[in-house]
Each structure stands twice: as C-alpha cells, then as structure tokens.
Specification:
- By secondary structure, this protein is mainly α.
- The protein has a single domain, classed as Na+/H+ antiporter like fold, CATH 1.20.1530.20.
- It has helices at about 5-15, 15-20, 25-40, 45-50, 55-80, 85-95, 100-105, 110-140, 145-170, 175-210, 215-235, 240-250, 255-265, 270-305.
- It is a multi-pass membrane protein.
- InterPro entries: BilAc:Na_symport/Acr3 (IPR002657), Bilac:Na_transpt (IPR004710), Na+/solute_symporter_sf (IPR038770).
C-alpha cells in the first residue's frame, strides 16, 4: 500500500476528466470495505468497545480540541490570525473522523470495532461539533446538510456494519475465514478505487488553487503530521498497541467528502486551500504511518525475542 495509495492519487488527478462519471460509486465501494471489516466483528467485541467509553472520549478530545488548538496556533504563527488559511487548517481538524481509517486500522492490526464506533458517533455529532468549533474560534457560522450526512453515514458505515456483525454471529465467526481469500483483495481494490475517485473529484479545485500551493503545502503537511502524532503520543500511557494504532489513525484522518463540501461551499477559496491540501496529504501520510508502525512492531518483536 506504500506505493499503491500515492499512485492512486496521481492517477486520479491525471485521469480526472475520465473518472468524474464514476465518483457517485464511492459510497458503494466504501460500503463493501466496511462490510469486509465488519464480518470480523461480533457482538462480544462491540460490547467491549461500549464498555470502554474513556478511549473514545479521549480520542475526540485529541482530534477535536487539541488538534484544532495546534492548528490555530500554527496558522497564526505562519500566516497571522486574520488569514483565511488559519480557518482552513482549523476546519480540517474539526470535521469528523474519516471512514477510510477503518481499513487502515484493520491493515495495521488495530481495533476495527472501536474505530467503527468512533466514526459513527463522531459523524453523528458532527452537525453540532463543526458549526460550534468554527463559531467559538472565529465567530463565523456554518450550516451543514444534516439529512444528507446521516444518509451517507447509514450507507457507508451503519448498514454494512449491521449486516457484517449479523453474518459473523450467524456463522459463529466462520464466515471471515471462508470469504477472506476473495473479500480481502477485493476490499483493497475498492479502497484504492475510493482514493483514486476522490482525487479525481478534488482535482478541479486543486487545479484552481495552484497559485497558493507553495505557500500552504508545508503548513498542511505539518498539521496532518501533528494530528497523527497527537494520537500516537497521546495514547502512549495506555501501553496498548491496539489502542495506539486505532487512535493515531483516528486523529490523523478526516472525512474527505464532508471536508471538501464545507470548504468549497461555505468558505472563501483561500480558506478551502488548506482543507483540500490536507485531505490529499492524509492518505500518503497514512501509508507512511502504516510503514512506521510495522517497523516499530518488528523492532519491539526483535527486542522481546
């Protein structure tokens, strides 16, 4: 995945005109990815997640309180408090957790049930969190299409999760082993398609914002990297690798579709620049984060051995 994800982004940009017609299929590809992950989760694992609300609450604090404050401080330092780029950096940290974290967490041996629960809850709260966060920091109001957001959430996360858990319980956990040889590579192909199609969808906006790229790219890379770091270092005290992996991905990645819609629909083009860039950067950095986690795992295993 280290080369596939960045390659998919590049292909999405280069072939944007040809891929635009397929963008509407993204929720269905994502639904299949979620289903593939959910068939490995039973009611017992979901109960374990519900019984650990502290981890979820701490994740939301890291993602939507600490990260926005870091973004605000970094933006003010680099561009000044009145710059629209500051609003863009903060907006990226306030939008809900990205659905694609589920696949990354699954590939990195994190807790898929915990990640699914956090995505669902955070997305459900986003109609309140996003406008409140923007208003508190900038005294600017923003409206979101709550009904459309809930509909996407039901299709991408809730329905596939219910079906997957039901299949897991019905088969007593045997279905995952039975379908994995086919479902696992298919889900990775679907996720690759999601990355490529989202890049194709964003390409026109990124092209229009080319003049600001050199100015904001370093700041966008820094804030996304700091979001990953906040989750990683913020969970070291748990001394639990599964929690560390899950929370670090959760704090580092945001909802692609909602981020672009909010940035392009409710703010100035300059405000949208950091959001679009951060959304593009989060996938390559997720690949790098996965690589680092695997290296740390091998190192700890060699030390333990």
């Amino acid at each position: 995945m280290f080369l596939i994800i960045p390659g998919s982004l590049v292909l999405g940009f280069f072939f944007s005109a040809h891929l635009q017609r397929f963008v509407h299929a993204v929720p269905y590809f994502f639904a299949f990815v979620t289903l593939t992950m959910a068939i490995g989760c039973g009611l017992q694992q979901l109960r374990a997640v519900i019984n650990r609300p502290g981890v979820m609450l701490w994740t939301f604090v890291l993602a939507h309180v600490l990260s926005p404050l870091i973004a605000y401080g970094l933006g003010c330092l680099l561009f000044g408090a009145d710059s629209p780029y500051v609003i863009g950096l903060v907006l990226f940290t306030i939008i809900p957790l990205g659905v694609s974290t589920v696949l990354w967490v699954g590939m990195s041996a994190g807790s898929v049930p915990l990640m699914m629960a956090m995505v669902v809850i955070d997305s459900a709260l986003s109609p309140f969190v996003v406008p409140t966060g923007i208003h508190l920091l900038f005294r600017t109001d923003v409206e979101t299409d709550t009904v459309a957001m809930i509909g996407d959430l039901l299709l991408i996360i809730v329905a596939p999760t219910i079906v997957g858990v039901a299949l897991h319980e019905w088969s007593k956990g045997r279905i995952q082993r039975a379908v994995q040889p086919i479902a696992a590579p298919l889900s990775k192909l679907c996720f690759t398609a999601v990355v490529m199609l989202n890049a194709a969808a964003i390409a026109p906006q990124a092209e229009a914002l080319r003049g600001d790229l050199l100015k904001v790219v370093p700041a966008a890379v820094a804030i996304v990297g700091l979001c990953y770091a906040a989750g990683f270092f913020g969970t070291l005290h748990y001394r639990n690798r599964e929690v560390l992996i899950t929370v670090s991905y959760a704090t580092g990645m945001r909802n692609i579709s909602l981020g672009v819609v909010l940035a392009m629909g409710y703010f100035s083009p300059l405000t949208a620049v950091p959001v679009v860039l951060s959304i593009l950067i989060q996938q390559p950095l997720a690949t790098l984060h996965h690589y680092v986690l695997q290296k740390l795992k091998k190192r700890s295993a060699s030390v333990g051995g």
